[in-house]
Amino acid sequence: MNSQNNHELIVSGIHLELTESLKTFVREKAERLFRHEERIVRIRVELECDSKEAVGTRFKAKGHIAIQGPDINAIVEEDECHKAVSLLIDKLDRMLAKRHHLQKVKRNHPHAVEFNGVELPKAV
């Protein structure tokens, strides 16, 4: 946790009592996201249990990553809470990787810019 001094992880439960083991599980899984992307400001994970839902979608895990630029949001529904957390972290990791790839492609392929009717060439 020494590398996470400027990062924040918020875990909350809705209609669900958060045990220490569940909090530790979410913290360990979220460390992977902090290692992959250093510009993450905050990760908020909400775990929700709805006993009236069907068995396959009883647990819902919502993730929100506050990062420089547009934030990233994801939702996963599963029959088990730990499985929902694992799938949520995997989904957020894929979304971060896609975002990083798109920024890298955009950075390496500049576009010509039109300025007062004169087209400027691409930066080399």
What labels describe this entry?
single chain; alpha+beta; two-stranded antiparallel sheet
Report on this structure.
The structure is a single chain. With 124 residues, this protein is an alpha+beta fold. The chain has one domain (2-120): Double Stranded RNA Binding Domain, CATH 3.30.160.100. The protein has 2 helices and 6 strands. The strands form 2 sheets. A 4-stranded mixed β-sheet has the order 1-2-3-4, covered by helices on one side. Strands 5-6 form a two-stranded antiparallel ribbon. A hairpin with a 4-residue loop joins strand 3 (59-67) and strand 4. Helix 1 runs parallel beside helix 2. The longest helix has 28 residues, at 81-108. It starts with 7 loop residues before the first strand and ends with a strand. The model has no long low-confidence stretch (mean pLDDT 85).
The total tally of domains equals 1
The number of helical segments is 2
Would you identify the CATH architecture? Answer: 2-Layer Sandwich
Spatial strand sequence of the major β-sheet: 1-2-3-4
Low-confidence stretches: none
Strand content: 25-35%
Global geometry? elongated
In CATH, what is the class? Alpha Beta
Q: How would you characterize the largest beta sheet?
A: 4 strands, mixed
Overall pLDDT metric: 85
The helix fraction, in percent, is 25-40%
CA-CA gap between termini: 41 Å
Structural class: alpha+beta
Radius of gyration: 19 Å
State the CATH topology: Double Stranded RNA Binding Domain
Q: What's the CATH H-level superfamily name?
A: Ribosome hibernation promotion factor-like
**How many strands in all?**
6
